[in-house]
């Protein structure tokens, strides 16, 4: 009982300090959908436990379907009574939801801008001088990269790999070939070992 009283006293003291803040404290939690189901449940339980603290705003970034499904699964695993749906649970915590537009239509342009800028020949501003690059890039993207590069994060990751690797390769090496090899190395390591 003393421990509970101590926790309650600390909570009250913290609330008083937060009330006196001159501005709101914004806490951003990103990539919640990349956590395990248990971690997703725990993070939302933690947020729910402190959501009434004054002058604190939470910005939560997640894929709603993944988080709802994870919460629903977790509730079915941990509670014997029929739990609420993941969506209903989120409604108790999240006051305002803002869907982020689908980035899929923009991924090819983003990949062109970022990945092809690493090489002078493939850089989009030089396509008029190297017209075959355009056809090769379009085929490579359509048949090889689009199933793999599903998010801007995937493109940035590949960009970082290519930036590091291309610095150590002969500049005479065809950049699109290098790109293909690195994609195979990253996403199909067994095939890469066979080719190597």
Describe this protein with a few key phrases:
196 residues; mainly alpha; two-stranded parallel sheet; 9 helices
Summarize the structure.
This protein has 196 residues and is mainly α. It has helices at 2-19, 37-50, 64-78, 86-93, 104-115, 131-145, 152-166, 175-187, 189-195, and strands spanning 25-29, 56-60. The radius of gyration is 24 Å and the shape is elongated.
Please report the total strand number as a whole number: 2
Q: Percentage of helical residues?
A: 55-70%
Radius of gyration: 24 Å
* Number of discrete helical segments: 9
Sheet/helix structural class: mainly alpha
- Which stretches are low in confidence, meaning pLDDT under 50 for 5 or more residues running? none
Biggest sheet overview:
2 strands, parallel
What is the CA–CA distance across the termini? 67 Å
Order of helices and strands: HEHEHHHHHHH
Looking at the chains present, what oligomeric state does this protein adopt? single chain
- The best one-word shape is elongated
The largest sheet has its strands arranged as 1-2
Mean pLDDT: 88
Beta-strand percentage range: 5-15%
């Amino acid at each position: 009982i003393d421990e509970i009283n101590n926790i309650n006293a600390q909570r009250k003291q913290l609330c008083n300090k937060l009330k006196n803040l001159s501005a709101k404290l914004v806490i951003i939690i990103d990539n919640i959908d990349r956590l395990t189901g248990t971690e997703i449940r725990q993070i939302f339980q933690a947020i729910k436990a402190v959501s009434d603290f004054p002058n604190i705003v939470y910005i939560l970034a997640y894929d709603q379907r993944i988080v709802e499904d994870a919460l629903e699964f977790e509730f079915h695993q941990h509670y014997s009574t029929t739990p609420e749906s993941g969506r209903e649970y989120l409604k108790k915590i999240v006051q305002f939801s803002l869907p982020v537009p689908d980035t899929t239509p923009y991924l090819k342009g983003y990949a062109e801008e970022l990945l092809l800028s690493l090489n002078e020949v493939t850089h989009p501003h030089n396509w008029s001088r190297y017209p075959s690059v355009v056809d090769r890039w379009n085929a490579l993207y359509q048949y090889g990269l689009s199933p793999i590069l599903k998010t801007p994060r995937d493109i940035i990751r590949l960009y970082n790999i290519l930036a590091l690797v291309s610095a150590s390769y002969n500049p005479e090496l065809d950049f699109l070939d290098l790109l293909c090899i690195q994609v195979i190395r990253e996403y199909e390591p067994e095939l890469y070992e066979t080719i190597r």
